Amino acid sequence: MDIGIIGLGKMGGNMAERLRRAGHTVVGFDRSPDSARDVDSLEALVERLPAPRLVWVMVPAGGPTQETVKQLGGLLSEGDVVIDGGNSRYTDDLVHSEMLAPKGIGYLDAGVSGGVWGLQNGYALMVGGSAEDVAKAQPIFDALKPEGDSGFVHAGPVGAGHFAKMVHNGIEYGMMQAYAEGYELLSASPVVEDVPGVIKSWTQGTVIRSWLLDLLVLALEQDPELADITGYVDDSGEGRWTVEEAINHRVPAPVISAALFARFVSRQEDSPAMKAVAALRNQFGGHAVHAVAKGEAEAPA
């Protein structure tokens, strides 16, 4: 089967390679001339694909995805299908679908999980769109997903795939935070002498074993005290969206919310909120405060 892939970064490039290994013909395009692209423009990509065309978009969410879909709307024809496999917000999918519908161009949103390990292990796929458009792309989904009966779901109409991936990533936030807090508590205790060993022991037979735990073990094998990295943690949006949707639907999500806010805390060298807490404890209870070392105070504006 022929497919065009737009965006050949860590995920897109590996997905293209997995598809080629499965016998599919991939025409790749990336705006970077240093990428392993097959063509140097969207126009050339569309020309290389036989109709009905299938084009997978793997570019950053928001403006870049919207602009790419808009350009494809002017190049593709009735019966073609666009798949957004990035981390777009599900509400954007409705806009993209409506943008393409007047020309008879189908649209699918595909939440993709697997990271840099997907080339080897396969990608979990959560897809939204019509059954007709899903059927057109099914051979591609079958090649990308892991072996076995699981790893792919037609979650519902347009938007359902990215909504499912949003919730998936929210859960991921909570799981990572729980493992991280457990790691810190083990490290803080003088009783435990082999923290990496304890965490590795959890990967077999325990109720908290998971692939994320395996990856924490791998990270600790490479750097037992995590001394080579800082605690600054970014977020790409899905956790925020999950919390917003939980509020919209009146669904309590305290764990995911706490994990999201923990990431915000990681970006503060000296939390103003914690300064206020320290000051209040000093005021009402006379509790000691830790003064800023001489010479470290901020210079007056």
Automatic annotation (TrEMBL):
Gene3D superfamilies: N-(1-d-carboxylethyl)-l-norvaline Dehydrogenase, domain 2, NAD(P)-binding Rossmann-like Domain. It holds the Pfam family NAD_binding_2. Keywords: Gluconate utilization, Oxidoreductase. GO terms for biological process: D-gluconate metabolic process; organic acid catabolic process; pentose-phosphate shunt. InterPro entries: 3-OH-isobutyrate_DH-rel_CS, 6-PGluconate_DH-like_C_sf, 6DGDH_YqeC, 6PGD_dom2, 6PGDH_C, 6PGDH_NADP-bd, NAD(P)-bd_dom_sf, Pgluconate_DH. GO terms for molecular function: NADP binding; phosphogluconate dehydrogenase (decarboxylating) activity. Residues 161-295 form the 6-phosphogluconate dehydrogenase C-terminal domain. It comes from the Bacteria. NCBIfam families: gnd_rel (TIGR00872), PRK09599.1 (NF007161). Belongs to the 6-phosphogluconate dehydrogenase family. This is 6-phosphogluconate dehydrogenase. It comes from Motilibacter peucedani. The lineage of its organism: Bacteria, Bacillati, Actinomycetota, Actinomycetes, Motilibacterales.
